[in-house]
Each structure stands twice: as C-alpha cells, then as structure tokens.
Amino acid sequence: MVGGGVASAVALPGSSEGVTYRPARWRGARLLSAADRHLAGRFAAGVTPALTAEVRAAGGGRAWFERQLAPGRIKDGQADQLGAWWPSLRLGPAELWRRQVQEIEFGWQVMESYQRWLLLRRIRTKRQVQETMTDFWLNHLNVPANGDATFTWRFDYDRRIRARALGSFRDILYAAVTHPAMGIYLDNAVSTKRHPNENLGRELLELHTVGRGAYTEEDVKNSARILTGWGVDMWRTWAAGYSADDHWVGRVKVMGFNHPNAHPDGRQVTRDYLTYLARHPATAQRIARRLATKFVRDQPPRALVDRLARVYLDNDTQIRPVLRSLVQSSAFRDSRGAKVRDPIEDVVATYRALGVRLHRPPANDDNHATRAVLWQCHGVGADPHGWPRPDGQPLDNESWATPARMLASMDVHWAMSGSWWPKVGITYRRHRDWLPRREIRLDVLVDHLSQQLLGTRSTARLLQACCDVTGLRPRTLITAEHDLVRWNFHRLLSTILDSPAHLTR
C-alpha cells in the first residue's frame, strides 16, 4: 500500500538518528484533482469522502458546480428533515409573539433554534452551493438573528432569500428590502410619510448597493420617502403589509433615478427604484468585489472584479453567470489556500470531516449536541448571523486569523477528536474504525487520515507533526490494540484538523 509520488521530505532537526519524514501513500479511493478540490472547498462546507464521490460521479468539479446551480433538482432529504426538529420555526409572527409574552418560548430561544437549524443544515445538505450563497446574501443584507423584535419574522426572511439565492440580485434586493424582518431591524416598519425614517434608505445605498460616495444626503431622504408604506403592526399582531396612507407622495430623485411618485400606492416605485439600484454600475462593482473577496482572495485583482461586474450587468444582475465566470478565472484557480475559514465554517467543516452523526433533540435538550454546536461556534468567535451591525460579518482573513481564534479552534478539534464533547445526542466514529486495515504503518495511516479528513494527500510536514505529537516513528506498525489507537488517537486526528489544509478553504 506504500507507493511513490513523494513530493518532499523533511529531516528532523537535531536528530542523531537522521530521521527523514517522507510521506507514504495509501491507495484508497481516487481523490479529486487539485482544481476540483479547490472548487468544492470554496463552495461547500468541507470536502469529505462523500462529497469527493459526488463530484467524481458528476464528471468533475465544473460539472458538479453546474449541477449545484440548479438546487431544485437535487434531493435533499436529510437536510429537509431538520425542519421537524424545531417546530417553532414554522410558527407565524403573531403566535411566536404570543408564546414570548406568555413565557412559553422566548424570542432568543427561537433564534437559537434557527441558528442550530442552520448549522445542521450546512453539515448535512447536498445543496452546498445554494447553502453557501444563501449565507453570502444573508450576510450582505444582514438582519441579525439576535434582534429583540426581528425574531418574529427572521426565519421567513431566510426562506425568502434562500429561494432566490442563485437568481438575480434585482429579485434578492427587492425581497430583502420589502421584507418585514428588514423593516423591523432598520425601522422602515414604522416609517411614515409624516415621519420618514432614514435608516433603511441609507443602508440600502451605503451597504446593500452603490456604496459611499455615490449619493448625497438628499438622496438618502428621498430613498427613505420611496420606502414609506411598508409597515408592520409592531408589538400587537405583527402583521405586515403595505399602507398607501403611510406612503409619501411627490417627485423623488436619487442619483440618476427620477420618478413622479404621484400615486399613494408606491409599491411600483419601490420596485422601479430597487431595480435601478440593482442595475447601477457601482452596485455591480460592489457585488463583484464582495463575491471575489469571499471566493477568491482578500484583495482580488481589479481585472477580475471588472470582468465580474460586466457579466453581472450584461445578464441583468443574474448571479449564476457571475459565479460561472468567477470559477473559470485564472485568479480563482491561483487562489488555493488563500482564504481562512471563519469560526462557523471551521466548526461545520470539523463535524463533516469527523463524520459524526447528530440526533434529533428531545424537548428538554440543554445538554444535547445540537445545542453544543452553537456554543462551539460562539467559543471560536462567531454565531450564525449573530453579527449585530447592518454591514454583516467580515469576509477578510485578518478578522479571523488571530491567536485567540486559533487556540479556540484547536480546543474544538481536540475535544471532538477525543469524542469528549459534545457527548449527548451525537455518535462519533470509533477510533479503531479509522484504521483501513488490521495492521498499518503510521506514515501510511497519516496519509489515509489526510485523505479522509482533508480530501488530499499527506505532506512531509504533516507526517512530522503527527510523529512529534504521538512520539512515534513513521514506520511504526499500528493495530487496533496499539496504545495510539487505545489512548492517543485524538492527538493524531486533532493534529490533522489543526493543519492549514483544514483551517483554509
């Protein structure tokens, strides 16, 4: 089972025995090419043996990606089952509010359920690209999941954006801006013609579309006037609707958008205005840059951003053509290993890599793993859609590449590699089950585990790290009765999970 293909070797510094760490090779199932693994790694929540088989069955990375762009054709039973685990997510806003007032279930508990549902969905779903893009848009059009009143409509907001995540930004923007969750969060739900609230009108320009410098304060005022009428019956029924009586009537001008706005029913002017903003060249640049930052590198090449912006405008803000152009670019191909996983991505990828199974929580689930997975994210540094500001969670490496975050990630990897925590409602793979045969050399085992956990071959440095942490030599024979498997296998697993190959995507 040991073959060639050795790329490099590392000599142990100061070793009197002159030990050289040269990675061996386990001939298991065929791996993805570097290009295919890179594509799957950027748009999925972690490359697993199952995902590798899925990509290969599709005919390669590009074919898999194209199939993922039509999520409605992908059966997703395991992810769809999760809806029954937290039934309160399906309740309407009035019922959710009643339950809070009567202290049956508080809003923060409903939103915790939503965050847990999100995490498990990311772990399980076969619609990985849709899931990734849903997260991207919910971050760009941020409505925090921990708001005091937004909980009444927040899960519905997810469903509205999720259904459009691979469509046009024009439709995504309209769905987000007119949604009651966004209206509650940025005060448009109580904005009237007599007292227009500027919060949403401003953030729509500054964060969601054209960006700073493209508009004036008068543009902000008119932006707010256009959006009046989209209300919510706050603190009573929580019913959402459009009120012509609350819509500001009169000519409005925002940058190049000019409209008589003469009718009390301003829903059409809202749509026309948002369409104008979605199609604006500055918006095209902003969306292109955010996509390139998320999926390529922190400082994407200007040529790539310009090209994506042109594709965006040429296709009337449709996102699929932009994503195709992005993954076909040389900048994308050359960016392997250039993006750090954020804390949430790290936790999700760790669950996927270790192949753990999470079970349905009981009614009283305080110690259940489905609750612990959210605590793990919090401990590493971020909760799903917990970012409190309207600008959304950062996309750059610097925000997540800190010593404190690294130590927190290592703590999660260590606890889960040892099957220690979480402990309730979860099934871990037994350590002896990681052995591909009854007796295997350590260097071959490290390569096998690298393929299983990382979707790639081991390196000389990874082998050296595994030898250092276990105190064993590369050619040590390992069986199920070896002390490594019985007492120290968590050292091996966590070392691989602590490697750059796992902490980047």
Rg (CA only): 25 Å
Low-confidence stretches: 1-7, 12-16
Distance between the termini: 29 Å
Count every beta strand, where a strand is a DSSP E run of 2 or more residues.
10
Strands of the largest sheet, in order across it?
1-2
Strand content: 5-15%
Number of discrete helical segments: 25
Largest sheet: 2 strands, antiparallel
Number of domains: 2
Average pLDDT confidence is: 95
Q: Helix content range of the residues, please?
A: 40-55%
Structure explained in plain terms:
Strand 5 (252-254) and strand 6 (257-259) form a beta hairpin. 50% of the residues lie in helices and 5% in strands. The strands form five sheets. The protein has a two-stranded antiparallel sheet. Helix 18 runs parallel beside helix 20 (403-417). It has 505 residues and is mostly helical. It has two domains: 1-28 and 343-381 and 402-505, no CATH class; 68-278, no CATH class. The longest helix has 18 residues, at 107-124.
Short description:
This protein has 505 residues and is mainly alpha-helical. Helices cover 50% and strands 5% of the residues.
Question: What topology emerges from the helices and strands here?
Answer:
Blueprint: E1 10-11, E2 20-21, H1 34-43, H2 49-58, H3 61-68, H4 77-80, H5 93-101, H6 107-124, H7 128-140, H8 154-162, H9 169-177, H10 180-185, H11 199-208, H12 217-226, E3 230-232, E4 240-242, E5 252-254, E6 257-259, H13 267-278, H14 281-295, H15 302-314, H16 319-327, H17 330-333, H18 343-354, E7 357-358, H19 369-380, H20 403-417, E8 426-427, E9 439-441, H21 442-454, H22 460-470, E10 477-479, H23 483-487, H24 489-497, H25 500-503
Helix pairs in contact: 2-3, 6-18, 6-19, 9-13, 11-12, 14-15, 15-16, 18-19, 18-20, 20-24, 21-22, 21-24, 22-24
